[in-house]
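Box 3.1. Reading complex inputs
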Amino acid sequence: MKDRRGAHHNSALVSAITGVALVLALPIGVMVTSPPHTDAPEWQHAATVLLPQHAKGTLLLLAGTLIPALLLAVPSAWLVACTTPPANASSIGCFSSRWRCPPASAHSPMLLGPTNSLSAWLDASLGMNPDLLHLPGLCLVLAAVLSQYIYLPARAAFTLGMTAQLDAARSLGAGPLRRFTRVALLLAWPAIAAGALLVAIETLNDYGAVRYFGERTLTTAVFRSWGGLYDLDSALRLGSVLILLVDALLWVDRRSRRWAGRSTDQVPTTPILPTGHRAAIAVGWCAMVLALGAGLPLAKILVDVAQASSLTDWQEMGPAFSNTLLVAALAAAVTLAAAVAFTFRERHGQSGLWAIRLANLGYAIPGAVIAVGAMAAVGAIDRSDCLPFPLIGSLGLLIHALAARFLAVGNQPLRAGLEHQPKALDESAQLLGASPLRIFRRINLPLFRPALIAATMLVAIDFIQELLLTLILRPFASIR
Amino acid sequence: MNGHTHRHYDTDKTLFSRFTETAGITVNVIQAGDDELLARLEQEGPKSPCDVFITAYAGRLGVAKQRGLLQAAQSAILNANIPAPLRDPDGHWHGLTMRARMVAYDRKKVRPGAIITWADLAKPEWKGEILVRTSENVYNQSLLAAKAWADGIVANMARAPKGNDTDKLLALGEGLGTVAIVNSYYVGKLMASGEPEKQKAKAAIAVAFPTIGTHGTHGNVSGAGVARHAPHKPEALALLEYLSGDEAQHLFAEGNKEYPVKPGVRLAPELEAFGSFTPDSLNPEALARLNPDAIKVFDAAGWR
């Protein structure tokens, strides 16, 4: 009897979680289901001209960003994880983990613009003024600011769980480089791949920096079709191609994890003390990564703030600041609650997983498009007058759209944290009669608390930075 | 009352505050891209709280009218303040300001009078000399005339299109090109700027207003219309009347370096120094109709 009640309880929970996933997937559902039924008058141009040109640009940008992002992040993560101060410049880890600059902001014009520091220096010292606002410059900017997505999980993976293997490799005569490439990289691969996936998706949905640099990607194709060809239906079809590409990347990520090394070891990696030129290289490398990804953009923003302080209406800043915190806190609570529930579902069952997978794809879609999807999903309710208040322009729809857009940022770290936990823990508890929910609450959840904190920080930063979606969906009156 | 606006200028905030002071009507606004705001208006439907839709590009007002998102709203004051070519005959939208699409050139390298029409810029003599934004930019989309012209401009670009109009002017100051295709209010703002990094460009440039055949100089009209389901139509009309009146037109001109639509309102000194021009006679609504064709021409010419 108790078993039957438990099973019933469990299946109700599964249905509820699938329901939450479907609600979060609504804006994407609208995007992928409406195009086949619409006219899309400019589809021929979009499919034959925009799609090939912009798909090529997208692939070049992806490769050009991922490679330098990996090169910047992985060695620094390794250096910080397995060397002692000062070589690991440990402050870099704690500083850069809390800071991420939006790619479209300060750094590109500051460093690469025609009249600015790097170009002016090249002109003055070498007599050359190359065009740096081009694909390679854009790749470098994106790699520098997004590499933190790889750095954070990679450092965590290098710090724990590979001591025995590294010691064994050392005793067999492997040098530092060989231990890094043949042992550490393989063991940390799931974490690195998870980070690289986030970098790839952020690159795919970037609009501001890509547009500023005049490059072409599938995201700019969506906006070109919508705002230039005046054809939202073709834009949604192009958006569906973007979703397919991200789904393919997710598939590659899952496949690549199969051959990665696994470890359940929780012993911290033994730090080593590099000396002489090795220490200098380590410090120099970490300092460069910090300067590119955080120092220079932050300096530029501070200079801009100082210059604009006389023009800023500080009276407006108070309410704007508290509104930002309120929306970020509410949206983070909703997103993390959903992410925890989905992680439970992924750990303890199979049904309904497609809904979770669909909901996670929102991260690939530009904020403006998600906002339009969210409005289309509830527009009929508003127009039918069945609710006493409109949903469009409500705080609820804003929170819903933010959660739909950034669910993956909350879900990915939790998933990676849970993957690290051996299944044997769950199986032992199950043998002792614990229900899946109890196992998750008493064993899984406490063990991935650090991942939960990291996920909360990452989503909160994204909520604060998201501009277009918030502008479109915000209520008329200020939220107080 | 509530407004959806694509204009993101401090001048507009001042104007709304002044309107509240004089008329006693508070204006709440949502500021975002015009395509996105049109999507919101469409989805909100009859329950939309929006009273006024304001945009920096009249082509979008044409789109809003076509989609049935605006309503006819006319008054003697609006008709008196706004010249007929700059408003919809049915009163669905009303032009409020104009910015000319113009060229800024290096005064040391180009003689005055060298650029009379937009077609001049497509000639081989300008090879490697032209600075211009991408074709994602709506100002370029509405300027585009023909494939042959786009081909000529692409062949003459000093570097691949990128950045905004201010970047073009600064690059001109650095000698990275000879001619920049820009919007007049960016040049006006540059000329009014005291920032040290802008002085070199200020000293280097002169301007011209190329024409399109006999059509005059192309411009981007900012305008507004009363939303179809506006809950506060009289207040919306009062706002439009205020924005087309002397005080607001002067603020548009002085604060944001735009050309006022109301005849007799004085230009900002920076714009006055550029001299006069004949505005394009093409109805802004035609721009909305022709925009998809412009995109196809840009793509065929390889103008990013």
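In summary: Confidence is low (pLDDT under 50) at residues 87-110 of chain A.
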